[in-house]
Prior knowledge:
4-stranded antiparallel beta sheet; about 60% helix; elongated
Amino acid sequence: MQTMDLNSLKAEVKKKMDVAVEHGRKELAGVRTGRASTNMLDTVHVDAYGSLVPLNQVAQLSIPEPTMILAQPFDPTLIKAVEKGIQIANLGLNPTNDGKVIRIPIPSLNEERRKELSRIVHKYAEEARNAVRNVRRDANDAIKKLLKDHKISEDDDRRALDEVQKLTDQHITMIDELQKKKDAELLGK
């Protein structure tokens, strides 16, 4: 019974750490690198029908060319709200509309903006690392409680803590790799 508790705990830890890495990956995908990507607009919310709605739920997004995103609202009356949502998302984008579609040109990045975006990348990566560390802390607390309640032996305790640490190291390495890759895209290293 006791090894099953540890095995299910380890499976849960891995699952939670995978979720933290995936969340970090999505956050990093939203940081623009000078090429158009609809992921850049994932954080944009539009004031529609009395609530804030993600942009991709009120408009069709497409990329007709590498430095342009088109947003076509499903409801033409939302065109101003969509445009405003993009502007207040603080992405450094300047949308324009022709009454039917919103054109969002992706400006080339200057050195100062690249460094600023790199800082954002580092912040997102650190948040993901902290999420992984929080999972580790919770798992270690659970393992220590099992030991204190005499449900596992000291050897099982040590082994489980080591395995949780290995999982933590693996996931932090994944986040570091994502950060390096995004930095390379941004800074052209």
